[in-house]
Design brief:
The chain is of the alpha+beta class and 186 residues long. It has helices spanning 61-67, 72-79, 105-119, 137-158, 160-168, and strands at 2-4, 49-51, 81-86, 90-95, 124-129. The protein has a three-stranded mixed β-sheet. A two-stranded antiparallel sheet has the order 1-2.
Protein backbone atom coordinates (compact mmCIF):
# COMPACT_ATOMS: atom_id res chain seq x y z
CA UNK A 1 0.00 0.00 0.00
CA UNK A 2 1.13 3.52 -0.70
CA UNK A 3 0.23 6.32 1.67
CA UNK A 4 -0.20 9.79 0.26
CA UNK A 5 0.17 12.70 2.66
CA UNK A 6 -0.30 16.39 1.91
CA UNK A 7 2.68 18.67 1.57
CA UNK A 8 2.20 21.71 3.75
CA UNK A 9 4.54 24.50 2.68
CA UNK A 10 6.22 26.61 5.30
CA UNK A 11 4.77 30.08 5.74
CA UNK A 12 6.89 32.60 3.87
CA UNK A 13 8.77 35.05 6.02
CA UNK A 14 8.39 38.55 4.79
CA UNK A 15 10.60 41.39 5.74
CA UNK A 16 8.63 44.59 5.97
CA UNK A 17 9.80 48.12 6.13
CA UNK A 18 9.12 49.99 9.38
CA UNK A 19 5.74 51.70 9.36
CA UNK A 20 4.64 54.95 10.85
CA UNK A 21 3.23 54.72 14.37
CA UNK A 22 -0.54 54.32 14.48
CA UNK A 23 -3.11 55.03 17.14
CA UNK A 24 -3.78 52.22 19.60
CA UNK A 25 -6.84 50.15 18.74
CA UNK A 26 -10.16 51.24 20.21
CA UNK A 27 -11.34 49.20 23.18
CA UNK A 28 -13.83 46.50 22.32
CA UNK A 29 -16.57 44.92 24.33
CA UNK A 30 -15.48 41.87 26.32
CA UNK A 31 -16.25 38.60 24.64
CA UNK A 32 -16.88 35.15 26.01
CA UNK A 33 -13.76 33.07 26.48
CA UNK A 34 -12.95 31.03 23.42
CA UNK A 35 -12.17 27.35 23.45
CA UNK A 36 -9.17 26.20 21.51
CA UNK A 37 -10.04 24.54 18.21
CA UNK A 38 -8.14 21.84 16.42
CA UNK A 39 -6.73 22.67 13.02
CA UNK A 40 -8.72 21.39 10.04
CA UNK A 41 -5.68 20.55 7.97
CA UNK A 42 -4.16 17.17 8.71
CA UNK A 43 -0.76 16.84 10.26
CA UNK A 44 2.10 15.92 7.98
CA UNK A 45 2.27 12.33 9.19
CA UNK A 46 -1.47 11.67 8.85
CA UNK A 47 -2.44 9.66 5.76
CA UNK A 48 -4.88 11.49 3.52
CA UNK A 49 -5.58 8.72 1.03
CA UNK A 50 -4.47 5.14 0.76
CA UNK A 51 -3.95 3.60 -2.66
CA UNK A 52 -4.16 -0.17 -2.70
CA UNK A 53 -1.54 -1.15 -5.25
CA UNK A 54 -2.09 -4.82 -4.57
CA UNK A 55 -5.47 -4.93 -6.33
CA UNK A 56 -4.30 -6.11 -9.72
CA UNK A 57 -7.25 -8.32 -10.58
CA UNK A 58 -8.76 -5.83 -13.07
CA UNK A 59 -5.70 -4.81 -15.05
CA UNK A 60 -5.55 -4.48 -18.82
CA UNK A 61 -2.44 -6.47 -19.79
CA UNK A 62 -1.62 -4.46 -22.93
CA UNK A 63 -2.00 -1.14 -21.14
CA UNK A 64 0.13 -2.38 -18.27
CA UNK A 65 2.89 -3.62 -20.60
CA UNK A 66 3.12 -0.19 -22.20
CA UNK A 67 3.91 1.24 -18.75
CA UNK A 68 6.54 -1.32 -17.76
CA UNK A 69 10.17 -0.86 -18.69
CA UNK A 70 10.52 -4.10 -20.65
CA UNK A 71 12.65 -4.84 -23.69
CA UNK A 72 14.05 -7.69 -25.74
CA UNK A 73 12.97 -11.24 -24.96
CA UNK A 74 11.10 -10.21 -21.82
CA UNK A 75 8.92 -7.83 -23.82
CA UNK A 76 8.41 -10.44 -26.55
CA UNK A 77 7.38 -13.00 -23.93
CA UNK A 78 4.94 -10.62 -22.25
CA UNK A 79 3.45 -9.54 -25.59
CA UNK A 80 2.62 -13.15 -26.48
CA UNK A 81 0.86 -13.82 -23.17
CA UNK A 82 -2.56 -13.02 -21.81
CA UNK A 83 -3.67 -12.98 -18.20
CA UNK A 84 -5.29 -16.19 -17.05
CA UNK A 85 -5.61 -15.12 -13.42
CA UNK A 86 -4.41 -12.20 -11.29
CA UNK A 87 -4.67 -11.44 -7.60
CA UNK A 88 -2.82 -9.38 -5.01
CA UNK A 89 0.46 -11.32 -5.15
CA UNK A 90 0.38 -13.54 -8.24
CA UNK A 91 -0.22 -13.24 -11.97
CA UNK A 92 -0.76 -16.37 -14.00
CA UNK A 93 -0.14 -15.84 -17.69
CA UNK A 94 -1.04 -18.08 -20.59
CA UNK A 95 1.08 -18.47 -23.72
CA UNK A 96 0.40 -20.52 -26.84
CA UNK A 97 2.60 -23.52 -27.58
CA UNK A 98 4.10 -21.87 -30.69
CA UNK A 99 5.64 -19.17 -28.46
CA UNK A 100 6.55 -21.41 -25.52
CA UNK A 101 10.26 -21.23 -26.40
CA UNK A 102 10.21 -17.65 -25.06
CA UNK A 103 9.46 -18.93 -21.56
CA UNK A 104 12.43 -19.35 -19.25
CA UNK A 105 13.21 -18.62 -15.62
CA UNK A 106 15.28 -15.50 -16.37
CA UNK A 107 12.52 -13.83 -18.41
CA UNK A 108 9.92 -14.70 -15.77
CA UNK A 109 12.16 -13.14 -13.10
CA UNK A 110 12.62 -9.98 -15.18
CA UNK A 111 8.89 -9.70 -15.74
CA UNK A 112 8.21 -10.27 -12.03
CA UNK A 113 10.77 -7.57 -11.14
CA UNK A 114 9.15 -5.05 -13.51
CA UNK A 115 5.73 -5.81 -12.00
CA UNK A 116 7.17 -5.51 -8.49
CA UNK A 117 8.54 -2.06 -9.31
CA UNK A 118 5.27 -0.97 -10.90
CA UNK A 119 2.93 -2.22 -8.16
CA UNK A 120 5.40 -1.68 -5.32
CA UNK A 121 4.82 -5.18 -3.96
CA UNK A 122 6.12 -8.69 -4.58
CA UNK A 123 4.40 -10.36 -7.52
CA UNK A 124 4.91 -13.99 -8.45
CA UNK A 125 4.67 -14.65 -12.19
CA UNK A 126 3.58 -18.05 -13.42
CA UNK A 127 3.37 -18.86 -17.14
CA UNK A 128 1.39 -21.81 -18.47
CA UNK A 129 1.32 -23.12 -22.03
CA UNK A 130 -2.14 -23.56 -23.47
CA UNK A 131 -4.79 -22.37 -25.86
CA UNK A 132 -5.51 -18.66 -25.66
CA UNK A 133 -9.11 -17.55 -26.19
CA UNK A 134 -8.49 -13.79 -26.20
CA UNK A 135 -6.07 -11.67 -28.19
CA UNK A 136 -2.57 -11.15 -26.82
CA UNK A 137 -0.94 -7.72 -27.09
CA UNK A 138 1.12 -9.04 -30.03
CA UNK A 139 -2.01 -10.25 -31.82
CA UNK A 140 -3.79 -6.94 -31.19
CA UNK A 141 -0.83 -5.01 -32.60
CA UNK A 142 -0.71 -7.27 -35.67
CA UNK A 143 -4.44 -6.74 -36.25
CA UNK A 144 -3.97 -2.95 -36.01
CA UNK A 145 -1.04 -3.09 -38.46
CA UNK A 146 -3.13 -5.16 -40.90
CA UNK A 147 -5.98 -2.65 -40.68
CA UNK A 148 -3.59 0.27 -41.31
CA UNK A 149 -2.10 -1.58 -44.30
CA UNK A 150 -5.56 -2.25 -45.72
CA UNK A 151 -6.50 1.43 -45.28
CA UNK A 152 -3.29 2.49 -47.05
CA UNK A 153 -4.05 0.20 -49.99
CA UNK A 154 -7.62 1.50 -50.23
CA UNK A 155 -6.34 5.07 -50.07
CA UNK A 156 -3.94 4.49 -52.98
CA UNK A 157 -6.56 2.67 -55.05
CA UNK A 158 -9.13 5.43 -54.57
CA UNK A 159 -6.76 8.38 -55.08
CA UNK A 160 -7.71 10.38 -58.22
CA UNK A 161 -4.08 11.31 -58.99
CA UNK A 162 -2.96 7.69 -58.80
CA UNK A 163 -5.90 6.67 -61.02
CA UNK A 164 -4.86 9.31 -63.55
CA UNK A 165 -1.27 8.04 -63.64
CA UNK A 166 -2.41 4.42 -63.94
CA UNK A 167 -4.67 5.31 -66.87
CA UNK A 168 -2.13 7.59 -68.60
CA UNK A 169 0.68 5.04 -68.48
CA UNK A 170 -1.39 1.85 -68.59
CA UNK A 171 0.24 0.98 -65.24
CA UNK A 172 -0.67 -1.18 -62.29
CA UNK A 173 -0.03 -0.74 -58.59
CA UNK A 174 2.02 -3.54 -57.05
CA UNK A 175 0.08 -4.22 -53.81
CA UNK A 176 3.18 -5.31 -51.87
CA UNK A 177 4.85 -1.97 -52.64
CA UNK A 178 2.30 -0.06 -50.52
CA UNK A 179 3.39 0.48 -46.94
CA UNK A 180 1.25 2.05 -44.25
CA UNK A 181 2.97 4.88 -42.44
CA UNK A 182 3.56 4.40 -38.78
CA UNK A 183 1.46 6.89 -36.82
CA UNK A 184 4.70 8.69 -35.85
CA UNK A 185 5.89 9.03 -39.51
CA UNK A 186 3.65 11.78 -40.83
Amino acid sequence: QVTIAPVIPEAPTAQTAPTAPTAPPAPTAPTAPTTPTTPTTPAIDEPVATVNTQDISNINWRTLLAQLNLSGLTLALANHCCIQEANHDRITLLIERQHAALVNERQQQRLAEALKQYFNCDIKVEISVGEITEATPAQEKQRENNERQQQAQQSIESDANVRGLLDAFDAKVVPDSIQALDSTEK
